[in-house]
Amino acid sequence: MQRKQGITPGNIMSSKAMECMMLAEEQTKVLEDSFTKVTRHPDGTTLMLIAAECGLSEEDTQKWFKLRNAQWRRRRVFRLNSDQCWTDTEEGEKKKALR
């Protein structure tokens, strides 16, 4: 199975849809930090605060989260289909899962 450029862990913003948004580096950093440290699915209030922080409309912020979640799911499926599977435990530690 070939790895697509859009699903490599270090190349998050490589999908064409994400590139079309033409975000500044600082906006992308704020959005990524929110995605990884706060939530992958922000509620209305959180979405409004994130949009205000990065200077985007709520619609554009919601679109970014939708696209980013799709990339996250594709990477997750790729990892599950690889030779070694990893699952999150309740403590947040990563352990090797047997197939």
Automatic annotation (TrEMBL):
GO terms for molecular function: DNA binding. SUPFAM superfamilies: Homeodomain-like. The keyword Manganese does not apply. Residues 14-75 form the Homeobox domain. PROSITE patterns: HOMEOBOX_2. Residues 16-76 bind DNA. It is found in: Nucleus. GO terms for biological process: cell differentiation; regulation of transcription by RNA polymerase II. It comes from the Eukaryota. Keywords: Developmental protein, DNA-binding, Homeobox, Nucleus, Repressor, Transcription, Transcription regulation. Sequence-specific transcription factor which is part of a developmental regulatory system that provides cells with specific positional identities on the anterior-posterior axis. This is Homeodomain-only protein. It comes from Dissostichus mawsoni.
